[in-house]
């Protein structure tokens, strides 16, 4: 099947699935909570195939998300970037969509060795990032500009979305996030930080690479909200800087400019959008706390390499010198395990947690993250890894990579 016919088939099957999937035996008809809703945290252990709480299982959350998000997102069974290729603004990858698809296929080429005879019964999947203990090495990726990128999605406001993301992640023992878009009025940005302020010390604040003076003004909001970490996604300046005269401009940054931003606050800054060892070393010169290996979900440069492909070489140069985060199609606990084995300290979860928020609000996010944590625990048992610090490339079958 050619690319175009496959894409058309995926779109058709996603529409059909809105009614058909609910009748599958693996998906209970009990619906997820309304987007933005509250309620008790899901019970643990969670599974993808069996109701564990009032929210249902992850498949039920995805079914609800499909109903809410279609056609902006088809909530494909595997989020590989094919059906939504070129849908930007939207949830798809830029241009041909290949950078998004590369993230998916690049990670799938990384295979795990099964070692069931270790007697490894109770692995510890908790970790500590910059002094913050997490229940497992995964956090929410900052996603902003919902009203701009998804103007037809009106059931959940941005503030409700951030409440669901942060609250659900906190319920799961990890960190939530708020995103940014430079075109938002300051009053809107302030309202997002009001949400963050209700979870002091538990929020990653994503800030666009605005001109330094503008960036630092947003940093002050993050400080007032007691954000734990700040990310600057420097790769998002690739297009927005073309009209630098606008007050809403973003801009590429030099090492000197990044150094000024790092020195402007005591909150750790992570430079997001790093895809080469050389750029990782340059970040080290700024004094930043770390990097995030990311191609922006395939939304800034068409045909970019996958994060799984470039991560090992970057880790070889800077591991232990700075925090290394990574994103790119993180869906399962085994994805977390593989990225950490390739050299990351933790992962950021983007599209999938966005779907969980729209399909189940705060309980849906908590359920998704707890499910991924339980999958990681099971995978650590079967790869003979007692704790996160012991995860290494030794658990990977590197000879089998295509």
Short synopsis of the structure:
This protein has 402 residues and is of the alpha/beta class. Helix content is 40%, strand content 10%. The protein has 13 helices and ten strands.
Can you characterise this structure?
With 402 residues, the protein is α/β, with parallel strands linked by helices. The chain has one domain (1-402): Alpha-Beta Barrel (TIM Barrel), CATH 3.20.20.70. The protein has helices at residues 3-20, 58-69, 98-108, 146-149, 158-171, 186-196, 212-224, 237-240, 255-263, 277-286, 307-318, 333-342, 351-382; strands at 127-129, 132-134, 138-140, 176-178, 203-207, 229-233, 269-274, 290-293, 323-326, 346-349. The strands form two sheets. An eight-stranded parallel sheet has the order 3-10-9-8-7-6-5-4. A two-stranded antiparallel sheet has the order 1-2. β7 (269-274), α10 (277-286) and β8 (290-293) form a beta-alpha-beta unit. α2 (58-69) runs antiparallel to α13, α5 runs parallel beside α6 (186-196) and α10 crosses α11 (307-318). The two termini are 21 Å apart. Mean pLDDT is 87; it is low at 3-7 and 9-55.
């Amino acid at each position: 099947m050619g690319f175009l016919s496959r894409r058309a088939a995926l779109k058709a099957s996603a529409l059909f699935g809105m009614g058909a999937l609910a009748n599958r035996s693996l998906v209970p008809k009990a619906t997820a909570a309304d987007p933005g809703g509250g309620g008790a945290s899901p019970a643990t252990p969670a599974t993808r195939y069996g109701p564990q709480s009032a929210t249902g299982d992850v498949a039920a959350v995805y079914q609800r998300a499909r109903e809410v998000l279609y056609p902006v997102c088809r909530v494909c069974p595997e989020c590989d970037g094919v059906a939504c290729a070129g849908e930007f603004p939207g949830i798809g990858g830029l241009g041909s969509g290949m950078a998004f698809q590369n993230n998916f296929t690049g990670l799938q080429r990384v295979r795990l060795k099964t070692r069931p005879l270790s007697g490894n019964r109770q692995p510890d999947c908790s970790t500590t990032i910059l002094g913050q203990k997490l229940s497992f090495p995964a956090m929410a990726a900052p996603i902003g500009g919902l009203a701009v990128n998804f103007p037809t999605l009106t059931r959940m406001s941005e503030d409700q979305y951030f409440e669901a993301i942060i609250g659900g992640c906190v319920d799961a023992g990890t960190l939530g996030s708020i995103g940014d878009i430079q075109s938002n009025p300051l009053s809107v940005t302030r309202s997002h930080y009001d949400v963050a302020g209700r979870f002091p010390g538990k929020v990653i604040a994503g800030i666009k690479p605005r001109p330094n003076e503008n960036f630092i003004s947003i940093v002050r909001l993050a400080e007032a909200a007691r954000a734990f970490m700040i990310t600057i996604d420097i790769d998002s300046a690739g297009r927005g800087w073309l009209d630098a005269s606008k007050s809403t401009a973003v801009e590429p940054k030099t090492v000197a400019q990044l150094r000024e931003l790092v020195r402007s606050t005591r909150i750790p800054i992570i430079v997001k959008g790093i895809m080469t060892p050389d750029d990782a070393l340059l970040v080290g010169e700024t004094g930043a706390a770390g990097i995030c290996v990311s191609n922006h979900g395939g939304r800034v440069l068409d045909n970019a390499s996958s994060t799984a492909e470039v991560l090992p070489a970057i880790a070889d140069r800077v591991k232990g010198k700075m925090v290394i985060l990574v994103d790119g199609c993180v869906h399962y606990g085994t994805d977390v395990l593989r990225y950490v084995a390739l050299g990351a300290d933790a992962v950021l979860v983007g599209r999938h947690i966005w779907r969980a928020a729209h399909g189940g609000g705060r309980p849906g996010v908590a359920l998704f993250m707890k499910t991924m944590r339980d999958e990681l625990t099971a995978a650590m048992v079967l790869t003979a890894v007692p704790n996160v610090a012991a995860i290494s490339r030794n658990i990977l079958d590197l000879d089998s990579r295509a």
